[in-house]
Every structure is written in C-alpha cells, then in structure tokens.
Amino acid sequence: MGRQMLTYLADVVFGLFTYALLLRFAMQVMRAPFRNPVGQAVIALTDWIVKPLRRVLPGVKGIDWASLVGTFLLQFLWLLFYALVFGSFSLTGVGIPFLLLATLLALARAVLWLVVIVVLVQAILSWVAPDGPLSGLLNALTFPLLRPVRRILPPIGGTLDLSPLVVIVVAQLLLMMLPHIEASLTAMFLGMGAR
After folding, report:
1. Which residues contact 20 (CB under 8 A, 6 or more apart)?
2. What integer is the mean pLDDT of 82-87?
3. Are 53 and 25 in contact (CB under 8 A)?
4. Statement: residue 41 has pLDDT above 90
5. Residues 18, 45: contact at Cβ < 8 Å?
6. Shortest CA distance to 21 belongs to which of 92, 111, 105, 97?
7. Average pLDDT, the chain
8. Which residue from 59, 70, 126, 170 has the highest number of Cβ atoms inside 10 Å of its Cβ?
9. Is this structure's pTM higher than 0.70?
10. What is the structure's pLDDT at 92?
11. What 8-state DSSP symbol labels residue 36?
C-alpha cells in the first residue's frame, strides 16, 4: 500500500510539472496565446524552473530551450526516482545512458498524449463553445496538426471534419508502437550491459 501511495504521489507531482512544461514549450513554438486561464496556469506552474534556466539557455529562433530542457530534466528525475526507489538501478555501466534514452521515449509518449488530449478538447469545444476563452489557444495548438490532414481529407459535405479523428488515430497508433520500440531498446541495452 505504501509503494502504491508513493507511486501515485510521484506521478501527480512529476506529471503535473512535466506536462505543464511540455505544454509551455508547445505553446511557445506554436505561438499560442498565454492570455487565457490555461496559459496563466502553465506560467505559474513552470516559472520556478524556466526563469533560472533562461539565464543559461536563452531562446533561439522561437524555440524556448529553457522549457524544453526543464521538461527533459523533470522527466529524467521522474524516471530516476522510480529506478532508485523501486528498482535495482545502478548509476554505472549502461544505467545513465539507458535512463536518458528512456527519458526521450517517455517524452515522446507524453507528446503523443498531449496531442490526443488537445485535439479531442478542441474538437469538443468547437461544437459546444467555438468562441470560448480557450478557442485561440486550442486553435493555435491544433491547426498545424489538422491542416495537412484537411488538405488530403476535406470536410465531408462541407461540415463534417474528420481531421481530428485522423490525428487522434495516428497518435494512438504511434502510442501502440512505443512499447515495442522500448522493448527492443531495453533488450539492446541489457545485452550491452551483460558484455
């Protein structure tokens, strides 16, 4: 029971800040507005790590390196916490390189989940509250993903837009592929560590 509670608390704390940093990075890359409740919450949750990192990592060509590095650091610490508390993890050998690769794969999973959630929320709100306070943010985050699909698959009958469904299905398929990639890379790293 104690282990389950510790896992839950770690997931909540690390997940909240990691996803907030990832969303901040995506919002800046996509030029999404921050003057909305979500944008203000993201800034409040992430300024503690982004502002100090900006002193060493300034943004270049629209890429907020401080947010991206902060996201990577928190995801790395999240996995390191699990490895040290729940597993037999060694910081020697292939441990750290494996953890760095696992961090990249975990961030890929987080990006795909973020895509699914944002596209789903945007699709729902476009029906019920198309001019709501989050419409500018959601449109800025989803249109670059939906635009290529809409070129290939225009709205049916001029009104039924299937592009959100296509983007969600593709993201889900990629999420299904990730465990196989992780298993292959884990086997490769374990083989390297056994030598």
Report:
1. 41, 42, 45, 46
2. 80
3. no
4. yes
5. no
6. 111
7. 89
8. 70
9. yes
10. 54
11. S
